[in-house]
């Protein structure tokens, strides 16, 4: 129950006068808790990304590899994620008319959140 509800119920059941209730409601209406909400719930959103690319090959075979690490802090506290991404791509020129491509993309993401999912 909120403080305003307590004052209303106290007045309704006769334990607080109407003047005291109005004074309490007026006092409560002047409280500004936006700074408190900002300090306790929010944070500066930051995204850090680190990426390494390697590429090598000749006219018959080309290799491409990429590794990514990403760390994100959301605008709410205890909210963000860590992500790892690994990408491989190989091109093979078997003959002048036959080419073969082999690739893979692996990703791992760890969500850090204070909010519980609704469905599991």
Short description:
25% of the residues lie in helices and 46% in strands. It has 120 residues and is an alpha+beta fold.
Describe this structure in words.
The protein has 120 residues and is an alpha+beta fold. The protein folds into two domains: 1-31, no CATH class; 43-120, no CATH class. It has three helices and four strands; from the N terminus they run αααββββ. The protein has helices at residues 3-12, 18-29, 34-41, and strands spanning 46-57, 61-73, 79-93, 99-113. Strands 1-2-3-4 form a four-stranded antiparallel beta sheet, with no helix packed on it. The longest helix is centred in the N-terminal third of the chain and has 12 residues, at 18-29. It starts with a helix and ends in a 7-residue tail after the last strand.
Q: Please report the distance between the alpha carbons of the first and last residues.
A: 31 Å
Question: How many DSSP-defined strands?
Answer: 4
**Fraction of residues in β-strands:** over 45%
The total number of structural domains is: 2
* Largest beta-sheet characterization: 4 strands, antiparallel
Computed Rg: 30 Å
Poorly predicted sequence stretches spanning 5 or more consecutive residues: none
Instruction: Give, in spatial order, the strands making up the sheet with the most strands.
Output: 1-2-3-4
DSSP helix fraction: 25-40%
What is the count of DSSP helices, taking H or I runs of 4+ residues?
3
The helix-and-strand class reads alpha+beta
Order of helices and strands: HHHEEEE
Q: Mean of the pLDDT scores?
A: 90
Based on Cα principal axes, name the global outline: rod-shaped
């Amino acid at each position: 129950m909120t403080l305003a509800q307590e004052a209303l119920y106290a007045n309704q059941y006769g334990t607080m006068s109407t003047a005291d209730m109005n004074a309490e409601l007026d006092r409560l209406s002047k409280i500004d808790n936006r700074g408190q909400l900002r300090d306790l719930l929010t944070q500066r959103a930051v995204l850090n990304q680190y990426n390494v690319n390697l590429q090598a090959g000749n006219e018959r075979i080309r290799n491409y590899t990429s590794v990514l690490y990403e760390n994100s802090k959301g605008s709410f506290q205890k909210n963000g994620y860590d992500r790892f991404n690994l990408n491989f791509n190989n091109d093979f020129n078997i003959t002048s008319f036959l080419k073969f491509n082999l690739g893979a993309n692996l990703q791992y993401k760890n969500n850090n959140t204070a909010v519980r999912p609704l469905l599991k």
